[in-house]
């Protein structure tokens, strides 16, 4: 049987199809999340690419920032549940998930069996989120995809002490005006995100193994800084941005009366 999982974020929409809850059959991602055509666009792209029809899909589930406003799926599931399920799909022994999305950051702790035991969220401030990196990249006239490469060229990462995005923006502009290199500032920005989120990780009482999920997980500079901040290796997989959608598809499978 086939199940579909849709993750509607603040800036992107991700969608996957699983076969029997264990095999990833297709995946798609579109820019545009809550309040845009992104969710419908990504579903259409997924169905076209999978050569399946909606009649082939037994059950569907939606998660993410925009799940409450979307009516095109059978089930609505929390992001915490989906990121826990999705991370274990790729890393069966993972105990802690660090999810940095566009608008918030979450840390999910699990037992050896995969049951969620604790979580901590930062959803009141943009600092330590993808939005923070977007704002900083705009100031530095750099594409968000360039940050990892530029940070690797830093000779001495700048210190970004402000924990507020607005104040950090002023601090970055000031450092650039004083002659600090873009590379050093970008490395400092990545370190700032890691410092902010690592406090959540420690507060949650994390256990190893640890992995990252969400779009920011693709940034190797942030992953490296995070690993240093919590003094622990962090697992990463290219599917990290799809963990929420994968978890939703697994939830849809189990809700249909099956388990794996």
From TrEMBL:
* InterPro entries the UniProt entry points to: ATPase_BadF, ATPase_NBD, CoA_E_activase_dom, Dehydratase_Activator_Redct
Cofactors needed by this protein, per the record, are:
[4Fe-4S] cluster
Which SUPFAM superfamilies does the entry mention?
Answer: Actin-like ATPase domain
Q: Which Pfam families match?
A: BcrAD_BadFG
Among its keywords, does the record have Metal-binding?
A: yes
Q: Which UniProt keywords apply?
A: Iron, Iron-sulfur, Metal-binding
Q: Does the keyword Transport apply?
A: no
Domain named ATPase BadF/BadG/BcrA/BcrD type is located at 4-252
The molecular function GO annotations come to: iron-sulfur cluster binding; metal ion binding
> Which PANTHER family does the entry link to?
BIFUNCTIONAL PROTEIN [INCLUDES 2-HYDROXYACYL-COA DEHYDRATASE (N-TER) AND ITS ACTIVATOR DOMAIN (C_TERM), BIFUNCTIONAL PROTEIN [INCLUDES 2-HYDROXYACYL-COA DEHYDRATASE (N-TER) AND ITS ACTIVATOR DOMAIN (C_TERM)-RELATED
* Assembly and binders: Homodimer.
Q: What is this protein called?
A: 2-hydroxyglutaryl-CoA dehydratase
